[in-house]
Amino acid sequence: AASKNDNYVKDISLAKWGRIEMEMAEIEMPGLMALRDEYKGKKPLAGARIAGSLHMTIQTAVLIETLVELGAEVRWASCNIFSTQDHAAAAIAERKIPVFAYKGETLKEYWEFADAIFHWPNGETANMILDDGGDATMYLQLGTRAEEDPSVLGEPKSEEEKFLFDTIRRRIKASPGWFAKAKGAIRGVSEETTTGVMRLYQMAKRGELAFPAINVNDSVTKSKFDNRYGCRESLVDAIRRGTDVMMAGKTAVVCGYGDVGKGSAESLAQAGCRVSVTEIDPICALQACMDGFAVVRLEDVIGEVDIVVTATGNKDVVTVDHMRSMKNMAIVCNIGHFDNEIQVEALRNFQWTNVKPQVDLVEFPEGHKIILLSEGRLVNLGNANGHPSFVMSSSFTNQVLAQIELWTKGDQYKNDVYILPKHLDEKVAALHLPKLGAKLTELTPEQSDYIGVESKGPFKAEHYRY
Ligand code: NAI
C-alpha cells in the first residue's frame, strides 16, 4: 500500500484545512498539550516505532504529533473504513508522518493499510502497537499462527475476513517468517476501546498474549468520559447529519446500557426523543429504570420505534427479522465498535438505494424501507466527526501515558493486561480541570486522616466505581 511518499491519503491539498482544525483542537486538548510541556526535550519515546490503528481524525492527529514530539516514530492507519477525516490525514502526511487512511477505503485496502503500519522503510518493524478495537494486534497474532499452520485461515465467514486472510497469505508468501519476527519485536500494546480490551483478555486467558497490554479503556478518565459524554454529543450529531430527521417526539430504543449506551440514551433524550433501553444485565437494566428509561425487549417494541441504536459490543443484536418488522423509514444504526451488532450482511440481497455517503435506504420484500447509517459501522465516526476534542484529550492522555509506561518499563510487566495506576488516572482528570475553570478543594491534614487518604491522592480505593 505504501506509495513513494510512504503515505496513502485522499488529497494532500486538504492539509492546510486539517492544520487549522488541529490548531483549534490543540486548545481543547489540554491533557495532550500538558504532556508535551512536561516532557519537553526529554523524548521518553525515543526509539519507539509505534504502529497506530485508530480512527484517523483531527483529534488523533494531535495525538500522533504528541507521540512524535515525545520522540516516537509512528506509522498510522484508521481502525474503521469510514472514520478517517481526510483533512486530518492530509495534515499528518504533509509533516512526512506515514499515514494510510481515507474515508471510504475498501476492505481490501483496510487490511493492506493494517499491514503497512508495521513496515519501516529501512526494513525494521514496529516495536509498539497503539490499537483501537484490536485489529492491529490480531493481525500479527493470526498471521503468526497462520505461518505455523496455514489451515487456521479456514473458510472466511465474511467479506472482511476474506480480505484479512488474503492479506495474511500474501504477506507470508512475500516474506516467510515475517509475522513471527514482527510479533517478537513488539514490546507492548495500549488498547483504546471496550471491544479491543475484551479481545485482549480473551487472548491472555488462552495464554496467547505475546506482550504486555495496557487497557486504556478502563481508566476512569477514558470509559466514564469518552464512552459516555462523548457519545452523548456525537450520537445525535451523526443521526442529524445523516438524516436531517426531526428528533423531538420520535421513539428510540438503545440496545445496551453500558457506558456507551448511557451516553447514547442521554443524547437522544436531550434531543427530545422518547427513549427505551434493552439490557441483558439486571444491574444496567435497573440503572436505566432509575434514569427514567423503560427497559424493554426489542421484539416487543420493534414495530413501533423510529430509531434503533446498538451499543452492546455484542453481535446479532438487531437481526434481519427485527428489521423485517420495522416501521417504514425507521433509522437503524450502531455506535458499538464492530458492524456485526446489526445483521447487515443479511440485507445485501435486498434493494439498496444510496442517498449519500454512509446513508442507505434498504427496501424489504415486505415493502417498507429502513434508513441504514454507515452500513452498520460506528455511526458517530461514519456519519459525523466522532467525539469532540476535549473528551478525546482525556482518552489520548491515557494512551500517551500507557505508551511511555510500556516503552520505558515494559520489561517489568508480564504478558498480561494491565490498567494504569489510579494516580495517573487522577492526573489525567486534573490536567483537564483548569480549562473548565474548576477549582479543587484541598483536604486538611485532619480530613485526610479521617477518611484515610493521602492529601495528594489517590483519593479513592481501587474498588470505588465512580
Ligand atoms: P459496556 O460493556 O459498558 O456496555 C455494553 C452493554 O451492553 C453491557 O451493559 C451489556 O450488558 C449490554 N449487552 C450485551 N449484550 C447485549 C444484548 N444482546 N442486548 C442488550 N444489551 C446487551 O461497553 P461500552 O464501553 O459501553 O462499549 C460498547 C461498544 O461501544 C463497544 O464495542 C466499544 O468498543 C464501543 N465504543 C464505541 C465508541 C464510539 O465512539 N462509537 C466509544 C467507546 C466505545
TrEMBL record:
It catalyses: S-adenosyl-L-homocysteine + H2O = L-homocysteine + adenosine. Binds 1 NAD(+) per subunit. Pathway: Amino-acid biosynthesis; L-homocysteine biosynthesis; L-homocysteine from S-adenosyl-L-homocysteine: step 1/1. NAD(+) binds at residues 193-195, 227, 256-263, 279, 314, 335-337, 380, 387. One of its GO terms (molecular function) is adenosylhomocysteinase activity. GO terms for biological process: L-homocysteine biosynthetic process; one-carbon metabolic process; S-adenosylmethionine cycle. Gene3D superfamilies: Adenosylhomocysteinase-like, NAD(P)-binding Rossmann-like Domain. It is an enzyme of class 3 (hydrolase). One of its GO terms (cellular component) is cytosol. Residues 227-386 form the S-adenosyl-L-homocysteine hydrolase NAD binding domain. It comes from the Bacteria. Substrate binds at T57, D132, E192, K222, D226. Its EC number is 3.13.2.1. It is found in: Cytoplasm. PROSITE patterns: ADOHCYASE_1, ADOHCYASE_2. Keywords: Cytoplasm, Hydrolase, NAD, One-carbon metabolism. The keyword NAD applies. Its cofactor is NAD(+). Pfam families: AdoHcyase, AdoHcyase_NAD. Belongs to the adenosylhomocysteinase family. May play a key role in the regulation of the intracellular concentration of adenosylhomocysteine. This is Adenosylhomocysteinase. The gene is ahcY.
